[in-house]
Amino acid sequence: MTHRARHEEPDTPLASAADVPGRDVVPRRGDFLEFLGLVLAAGALVLVVVHPEAPEALVHALATGTAGLVR
Question: Where are the residues of the annotated region Disordered (predicted)?
């Protein structure tokens, strides 16, 4: 996951929520999107390993759809 630097002084305006005592850290939207991207990439890798013909079928479907738009 992405590493975020924390500031030493919690009084500065750039202090993160983790630097303030008694305040819970809430996951940011970027963290969720990063996790979702990793899950999609892992799923695609598993699909390629389990069904090696899947990428070929995907390329064929995309090429057929694109050729239909050209006509």
Answer: 1-20
- Cβ atoms of residues 40 and 46 within 8 Å: no
Q: 38: which 2 tokens? A: 């990793």
- Give the relative orientation of helices 54-70 and 29-50 as an angle to the nearest 10 degrees: 110
* CB-CB contact of 18 with 25 (8 Å): yes
Where does the chain have alpha helices with state H? 29-50, 54-70
pTM: 0.46
Q: What integer pLDDT is reported at residue 69 of this predicted model?
A: 83
